Amino acid sequence: MAKQEVSFFWFRRDLRLDDNVGLFQALQSKYPVIPVFIFDETILERLPNNDARVGFIHESLANINQKLSEFGSSLLVKKGKPLEVWTHLINEYSIQGVFWNKDYEPSAIQRDLSVDKLLTSNGIQSSAFKDQVIFEEAEIVKVDGLPYTVYTPFKNKWLEKYKSIAPVPEFDAVPYFSNFFKSDFDFPSLEQIGFTTSPIKVKPHNLKWVANYNETRDFPALDSTSYLSPHLRFGTVSIRKLVNWAAKKNAVFLSELIWREFFMQILYHFPKVQNKNFKSAYDGIEWRNDVDEFKRWCEGKTGYPMVDAGMRQLNETGYMHNRVRMVVASFLCKHLLIEWQWGEAYFAEKLLDYEMAANVGNWQWAAGTGCDAAPYFRVFNPDIQQKKFDEKGVYIRQWIKEFDLGYGQPIVDHVMARDRAIATYKAGILK
Description:
CATH superfamily of the domain at 280-428: DNA Cyclobutane Dipyrimidine Photolyase, subunit A, domain 3
Distance between the termini: 71 Å
Number of strands: 5
Domain Photolyase/cryptochrome alpha/beta: 5-134
CATH topology of the domain at 280-428: DNA Cyclobutane Dipyrimidine Photolyase, subunit A, domain 3
Number of helices: 19
CATH class of the domain at 280-428: Mainly Alpha
Shape: globular
Keywords: Chromophore, FAD, Flavoprotein
Order of helices and strands: EHEHHEHEHEHHHHHHHHHHHHHH
Structural class: alpha/beta
Helix content: 40-55%
InterPro entries: Crypto/Photolyase_FAD-like_sf, Crypto/Photolyase_N_sf, Cryptochr/Photolyase_FAD-bd, Cryptochrome/DNA_photolyase_1, DNA_photolyase_1_CS_C, DNA_photolyase_N, Rossmann-like_a/b/a_fold
Radius of gyration: 23 Å
Largest sheet: 5 strands, parallel
Family: Belongs to the DNA photolyase family.
Cofactor: FAD; (6R)-5,10-methylene-5,6,7,8-tetrahydrofolate
Oligomer: single chain
């Protein structure tokens, strides 16, 4: 019996049917489209079995599957190593083409190259599309073709290019949904994938504060954040729709979206930054890397209320306010002289919105080792940060229940730690 000729669309960091470039292109093909998602075992095996992000992915896929059922279709969900899954699918179907959206992280690039090689060797064409950014790869570069390593000129070039095409075209695939492969694939439960439900949940995004974002964004007690970052990370929202909307609402909010793309470009052009200093001159710094002090930082028991509140918020919810992230990161690297990779790895484990480019970029910014980073001699004073941004202690009391009962002594004296950090950096920076 001849196998039915089909195309595939491979969902990854784009968990939506709305304004999805690769999906839109797949549905233009003359073959019915099977939408597939692969729970990658090489990623899953590093996670706890109640990881909230896996639960959010599963929930998002269930929503997609429910919508597909309205068109007589369904989502094919697999678990395994992508290369092995695709080998199996090639044997099972007569695949005429595979479509996906690009991912710019180093491991994802290698994954896609290996899958493309497998498909090509079987006479199958793959097609990859830009979807999770407005501008990618070499679209925003200097006159000489080299990538920007300073944010402001990157932002200016980005805005100039955006304004020349604004609004960015969006891709409405709904008229082509009849081209989905007619199917009723079994949708696995979270338990069948090997995971359990987490008490930590991804919150719905909320854009009501965006108009006043520049006025409210630094005050954690206001809870005025959009909660967009996990949705951007997993692609449950369209970056094109968001940027077109933000460009009309608030320039500072838009600039944060541009920072996201800046760090993605840095990771793409300089993949070493995933675990090495962008500025190699900082490789000579002698970090203290005290294990006990790192543990106290992780648990939110440093004796500095702003630091501890942030870490407890992270541990309990998977979120941390952006202003507080800067404070806790600076504290780890400067006050405790623990290298940024330790903090980056802990954030990667805990953050619901973990995205390598932004996480690495911001940690290196705080440590002073990255591109366009804070200078090494800038050492945030956590107490001053608290007085400026949580003067009445509302945010602190939310996360430190024992705060008014006599809070613990600071793990380190600020003045001593600041002087020690500056001296250590000076001595360690390679000439």
